[in-house]
Design goal:
Molybdopterin molybdenumtransferase; 4-stranded antiparallel sheet; alpha+beta; single chain; metal-binding; 6-stranded mixed sheet; Aspartate Aminotransferase, domain 1; magnesium; EC 2.10.1.1; Molybdenum Cofactor Biosythetic Enzyme, Chain A
């Protein structure tokens, strides 16, 4: 710190708040710590009795907190988002669209491990709405070494730490397996659930077939839906390990690559994820999707709509946080379900 005449302080950085007290009127900061003094600020400082003030000495190797915060902003900011104005070393990123928020968690940890700076985000892998905050960044000290901010850039890597992927309004087909449904012995109540969930994202069902239990017929049904332009296919029924459950075999026989048959999520352990060679997903949905409030399907669906790959590694990581408590008053996604790291 350095004490200088107020008249000589233009362009300098305040080391402390400047408070004005008027009895019965105000007691508040006229200028905050870190404020860069302007010519028009000099009369105000003199009126509150500050003929001398403490400032940070200029140092070409240091950055002011707001300038350093902008470095963090650049590290984080991907497409479809905008930044707030820098204030007291803080910048926030705001969503410009509804989309799937994805955070580079490894890069985030590396930057936050450097100290004297922080980035706090919303949970990765969940849908956010236009206008919502995505993250907040802050520089802890008033000034920070330029070299440390360079290290932050290197720790983050070349790509932005935060990405916001648009959700596409896709078409889908539903294959309702089971001879009991095909013969009309029981009513299909599963498809309505799928239509409702995807309808929330503006998606449209363009095909629905009940082919019974014959694996070859199920396979052909899936292939026909894809040939007719469905962006996604969901198969219901026949997803357990019973010998007469043919759906996993039928999906495999379409030529789809199975990502995983099974997921460490309850409800939803018997979920099957697969992709056709052209990248279109074919999924086998366990029966819990029909009756449980929230399941593996609620975690997977935003990825399918944003074209973010569902991988075996990601599915395996859902075990931490993958237990839904089935609360009477469901607050998903504002709960711990699916938020393990």
């Amino acid at each position: 710190m350095k004490l200088i005449r107020t008249e000589d302080a233009v362009g300098q950085v305040l080391c402390h708040d400047i408070t004005q007290i008027i009895k019965g009127v105000t007691k508040d900061a006229v200028f905050r710590k870190g404020h860069i003094i302007r010519e028009q600020d000099i009369p105000v400082l003199l009126r509150v009795g500050k003929e001398h003030i403490y400032i940070w000495e200029n140092n070409e190797n240091m950055l002011h907190e707001n300038d350093a915060a902008d470095v963090l902003r650049a590290i984080c900011q991907g497409e479809h988002m905008h930044a707030s104005e820098a204030k007291e070393g803080k910048i926030e990123l705001i969503a410009d669209i509804d989309g799937l928020l994805m955070v580079d968690l490894d890069g985030l940890r590396r930057v936050n491990s450097l100290g004297e700076m922080m980035i706090a985000t919303r949970p990765s892998g969940f849908v956010v709405k236009k206008g919502e905050k995505l993250c907040g960044t802050r520089i802890i000290p008033l000034v920070i070494e330029k070299e440390k901010m360079q290290r932050a850039k290197e720790a983050a890597g070349e790509k932005p730490l935060i990405q916001l992927y648009p959700l596409k309004k896709k078409t889908f087909g539903v294959v309702t397996t089971g001879s009991e449904v095909a013969k009309g012995l029981i009513q299909d109540t599963f498809t309505d659930v799928i239509v409702e969930k995807l309808g929330e994202y503006g998606c449209t069902m363009t095909a629905h077939v009940c082919p019974g239990d014959d694996a070859a017929v199920i396979t052909q049904t899936i292939q026909n839906m894809l040939a007719n332009g469905c962006d996604m296919v969901f198969c219901t029924g026949g997803m357990s390990v019973d010998p007469d459950d043919r759906t996993p075999l039928a999906i495999r026989n379409t030529g789809a690559q199975i990502v995983s048959y099974g997921a460490p999520v309850l409800p939803g352990a018997m979920f099957l994820a697969a992709y056709m060679p052209d990248g279109r997903p074919v999924c086998g949905l366990p029966g819990c999707v029909m009756y449980a409030k929230r399941t593996i399907f609620d975690l997977v669906l935003p990825r399918l709509l944003a074209d973010v790959p569902v991988t075996a590694e990601w599915l395996a990581g859902l075990g931490n946080g993958g237990l839904c408590l089935n609360c009477d008053d469901c607050h998903f996604p504002n709960c711990g379900f699916g938020k393990g790291v």
